[in-house]
TrEMBL record, chain A:
Name of the protein in question: Non-structural maintenance of chromosomes element 4
Main location: nucleus
Source species: Camelus bactrianus
One Pfam family per UniProt: Nse4_C
One Gene Ontology biological process: DNA recombination
Automatic annotation (TrEMBL), chain B:
Gene3D superfamilies: MAGE homology domain, winged helix WH1 motif (1.10.10.1200), MAGE homology domain, winged helix WH2 motif (1.10.10.1210)
Organism (species): Camelus ferus
Record protein name field: Non-structural maintenance of chromosomes element 3 homolog
GO cellular component entries: nucleus
A Pfam entry, by short name: MAGE
Domain MAGE per the UniProt entry, residue ranges: 63-263
Positions of the UniProt region annotated as Disordered: 1-60
Origin superkingdom: Eukaryota
The keyword Transmembrane belongs to this UniProt entry's keyword annotation: no
Organism placement in taxonomy: Eukaryota, Metazoa, Chordata, Craniata, Vertebrata
Length: 370, 282
């Protein structure tokens, strides 16, 4: 059929109202009889504008030129009727498909009648177009037939979903979920989710129960690369996972970031209260978390090592942190007089508690970034 | 299931000859004894490895490690619920062990089933993609323990699956949106929970193989239709979806005779022993 359609299109003249493209070249099963008659007529009509060979003309004795003119009018009217028919059917598409009416059959019969008058390819093309449309609708109707057997009412399903979740509003005024509170929507979907998961054998998404050790909460990425060198396991002993080289670097970055952050906090304090050294313990202790305290001590030690602050004992023999100005570093401090000074701070859980109690530390000076 | 260094400690006390024997293989760490108590087999393995090149028979320990890696890989890749390709497995985990890939896969599948209760199945025969499904039926109390598992997309999915099945195993996209609009889910509007619902349904669910999304030919404007995807058939069944729909309606599944018959037929087909069962094929 495709070849014939091609030649049909080839014959359509330009400049007329655009003919909607004949899309259906493959509806073999649904062809009506007209379609079978068509090839015969098409072959006759191709390449011959004159109607002298045309079977539908009937009046073989009339002068050919006169015949052409008369038929031109007729053809135009046929085309108009076809287009009207197609338009009607498209407009009433829903009606035709959904109801048990005969309107589709009627339309087909109308096309049948029209086709008797068709003599040229242009009109035949329109007829083919109509047939595609009709067969589409026919298929739709057939589908409807199946589901009518056990009719599933979607609208009712929707209402029942609301009732199932516990939102009762069967007043039928078509209120939507979006009109309501966000919380209601959330609880709706959670309830549905709970019910739905009990009907599916979904494998749980893998995640660590207590999270990972990263300092920022990070989204889990699939760990794709594994080191293939087996001997590396020796070094990593207990570790069940093989670390990528990058992982170590990122840990270092985290440390540096933390150190910088705490340095910033310290410097802000010193700017706010110039010439007032801060008590070391007050600075590092987190009354709520012993582990954070230890981390803070660790980070502050970097600050001291890098020379951004100084720790010394005040008159009460308690450690304090003092700022070091940049100019101070240049003058006065002779590098050679810098003997290595080392301090070791040990802090047990009990010590930490005692300090919190003694110094009456109620909140951490070093706030968390997360 | 992993090798702890304790075993190496034990190996140290063993006579030197075993260490020499083990050294023939890939690495120096080939301690013949395993914590599994199969010391004899391990020792045998290392003896075999004496004169072999790198691609030769591996020791028990190496195998164990590989299987463990594979299990981890599968678990993590499954997070997104996108089927795992065999090519990915070979590239990232198996590598040199390609020749024993089927055995590795079988062992990993056993491990997954025994420890986690997950079954490794091939999505479709000969597709060389795998998914994990739960062998355990969900239990009421699980919901509390499960905690926050991200956005509740399964609810939306189940609704769509229900729609598809009840409307004859295929439904047009426009019908889906007509329905979902009433639930406050729009294809073009950003959703509080689902973000971009159109993307979720037409792309994510399709990529996860829960749904099939096909263009309907000869429609103007273009329309698409949804059908069940292969993953859906593995993770749930027509009967289960029907029961879900029935539960929502507070009715009996038999109230929809046509769908009930269809679901029943599928149940019977599944109960019959299948020739090409869903096991990881070599």
């Amino acid at each position: 059929m495709a070849d014939e359609k091609g030649t049909l299109r080839g014959d359509v003249e330009e400049g007329e109202e655009p003919v909607v493209a004949v899309t259906g070249s493959a509806h073999p099963g649904k062809q009506a009889e007209e379609e079978e008659e068509e090839p015969m007529k098409v072959e006759v009509a191709v390449g011959a504008d004159a109607c002298s060979d045309d079977l539908s003309c009937g009046e073989a004795d009339i002068d050919p030129s006169l015949l052409e003119l008369a038929d031109e009018e007729k053809c135009r009217s046929i085309r108009k009727q076809y287009r009207q028919l197609i338009y009607n059917v498209q407009q009433n598409r829903d009606d035709i498909v959904n109801t048990a009416s005969d309107s589709l059959t009627e339309a087909l019969e109308e096309a049948n009648v029209l086709f008797d008058a068709v003599s040229r390819t242009r009109e035949a093309a329109l007829d083919a177009q109509f047939l595609v449309l009709a067969s589409d609708l026919g298929k739709e109707k057939a589908k409807q037939l199946n589901s009518d057997m056990s009719f599933f009412n979607q609208v009712a399903f929707c209402d029942f979903l609301f009732i199932f979740v516990g939102l009762n509003w069967m007043e039928g005024d078509g209120r939507e979920l979006s009109d309501y509170d966000d919380n209601i929507a959330l609880s709706f979907w959670e309830t549905v989710q709970k019910e739905a998961t009990s009907w599916m054998l979904q494998a749980e998404k893998f995640h660590f129960i207590f999270g990972s050790f990263k300092s920022e909460p990070s989204a889990r990425k699939p760990r794709l690369e594994h080191r293939k060198k087996v001997h590396r396991m020796e070094e990593n002993g207990d570790m069940p996972t093989k670390l990528r080289k990058l992982d170590l670097n990122s840990n270092q970055e985290a440390t540096e970031k933390e150190v910088e952050r705490i340095l910033g906090l310290l410097q802000t304090y010193f700017r706010k209260y110039p010439d007032t050294p801060v008590s070391y313990f007050e600075f590092v202790i987190d009354p709520n978390s012993f582990s954070r305290t230890v981390e803070n001590i660790f980070y502050v030690s970097f600050i001291i090592r890098d020379g951004f602050a100084r720790i010394r004992l005040d008159q009460d023999r308690l450690p304090i942190l003092e700022p070091i100005n940049i100019n101070q570093v240049g003058e006065g401090n002779d590098p050679s007089s810098h003997c290595r000074k080392q301090g070791v701070i040990s802090l047990s859980l009990q010590d930490w508690k005692n300090i919190v109690a003694t110094f009456e530390i109620s909140e951490a000076m070093i706030t968390n970034s997360y | 299931m992993l090798q702890k260094p304790k075993s190496r400690g034990r190996a140290g006390s063993q006579p030197e000859r075993e260490q020499d024997g083990g050294r023939g293989g890939g690495g120096a760490e080939e301690a013949p004894s395993t914590s599994r108590g199969a010391a004899g087999a391990g020792w045998q393995g290392s003896r075999r490895a004496e004169a072999s090149p790198k691609a030769g028979p591996r020791s028990q320990k190496q195998l164990e490690l590989k299987v463990a890696e594979l299990v981890q890989f599968l678990l993590i890749k499954d997070q997104k619920k996108i089927p795992i390709k065999r090519a990915d497995i070979l590239k990232h985990v198996v590598g040199d062990y390609k020749d024993i890939f089927p055995d590795l896969l079988k062992l990993a599948a056993q491990r997954l089933e025994y420890v986690f209760g997950y079954r490794l199945v091939e999505l479709e025969p000969k597709s060389n993609t795998y998914i994990l499904i739960n062998t355990l039926e969900p239990v009421e109390e699980d919901a509390e323990v499960r905690g926050d598992q991200g956005t509740p997309t399964t609810g939306l999915l189940m609704i769509v699956l229900g729609l598809i099945f009840m409307k004859g195993n295929s439904i047009k996209e426009t019908e889906v949106w007509d329905f979902l609009r009433r639930l406050g889910v729009h294809p073009t509007k950003k959703h509080l929970i689902f973000g971009d619902p159109k993307k979720l349904i037409t792309e994510d669910f399709v990529r996860q193989r829960y749904l099939e999304y096909r263009r309907i030919p000869h429609t103007d404007p273009v329309d698409y239709e949804f059908q069940w995807g292969p993953r859906t058939n593995l993770e749930t069944s027509k009967m289960k979806v029907l029961k879900f729909v029935a539960k929502v309606h507070n009715q009996d599944p038999k109230d929809w005779p046509a769908q009930y018959c269809e679901a029943l037929a599928e149940e019977e087909a599944r109960a019959r022993p299948q020739t090409g069962g869903p096991a990881p094929s070599s």
